[in-house]
């Protein structure tokens, strides 16, 4: 009887441990990588023959969070976009410094100004030279169509690259 109780308790503890491991693994969703260097991001996209989808965002922007969690992260999870676009985000909050297209460290807000990004979220589809290849997506006005807008931007950008 004691042996059965011991087996039952040991089995229960093992089951709880395994469930905990599964839950820990389930929590490791991919994240959209933040740009530290625009030069590096465009180079990586160019090496892979892809356009760069650059999402301008800020930490206190609820719409930015919605775009990331409801569209960009699921795109990463699906794997369907791995060979179509390189997805990155650029935080333009005050004090954030990043490398520009020439490797010079500058305020992210200044880079946003150079691209005439006035609000977040704004998605740009960039080529290896940092030039826009498709119409930008500004804001999150129509969530029902947003995924289609992203796909159209990716397709247009790839066509501009000759893909």
Which fold name fills CATH's third level, the topology of the largest domain? Glutaredoxin
Fraction of helical residues: 40-55%
**How many beta strands in the DSSP annotation?**
7
CATH superfamily of the largest domain: Glutaredoxin
* Residue windows where pLDDT falls under 50 for at least 5 positions: 8-24
- The ordered string of helix (H) and strand (E) elements is HEHEHEEEHEEH
Instruction: Tell me the CATH architecture of the largest domain.
Output: 3-Layer(aba) Sandwich
Helix run count: 5
Shape label: globular
Biggest sheet features: 5 strands, mixed
Q: How many independent structural domains? A: 2
Top keywords for this entry?
2 domains; 5-stranded mixed beta sheet; Glutaredoxin; two-stranded antiparallel sheet; 163 residues; 47% helix; alpha/beta
Question: What this model shows, in words?
Answer:
This protein has two domains: 1-30; 31-160, Glutaredoxin (3-Layer(aba) Sandwich). The longest helix is centred in the first third of the chain and has 25 residues, at 2-26. Mean pLDDT is 88; it is low at 8-24. The chain has five helices and seven strands; from the N terminus they run H-E-H-E-H-E-E-E-H-E-E-H. The protein is α/β, with parallel strands linked by helices and 163 residues long. The protein has helices at residues 2-26, 38-47, 62-78, 108-114, 143-160, and strands at residues 33-34, 52-57, 86-91, 97-99, 105-107, 122-126, 137-138. A hairpin with a 5-residue loop joins strand 4 and strand 5 (105-107).
């Amino acid at each position: 009887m004691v042996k059965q109780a011991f087996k039952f308790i040991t089995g229960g503890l093992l089951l709880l441990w395994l469930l905990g491991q599964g839950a820990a693994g389930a929590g490791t969703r991919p994240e959209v990588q933040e740009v530290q260097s625009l030069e590096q991001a465009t180079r990586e996209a160019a090496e892979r023959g892809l356009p760069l989808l650059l999402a301008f965002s800020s930490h206190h922007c609820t719409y930015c969070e919605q775009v990331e969690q409801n569209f960009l992260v699921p795109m990463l999870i699906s794997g369907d976009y791995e060979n179509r676009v390189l997805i990155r985000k650029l935080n333009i909050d005050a004090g954030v410094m990043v490398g520009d297209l020439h490797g010079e460290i500058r305020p992210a807000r200044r880079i946003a100004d150079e691209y005439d990004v006035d609000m977040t979220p704004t998605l740009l589809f960039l080529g290896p030279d940092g030039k826009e290849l498709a119409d930008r997506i500004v804001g999150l006005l129509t969530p029902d169509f947003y995924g289609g807008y992203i796909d159209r931007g990716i397709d247009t950008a790839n066509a501009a690259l000759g893909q």
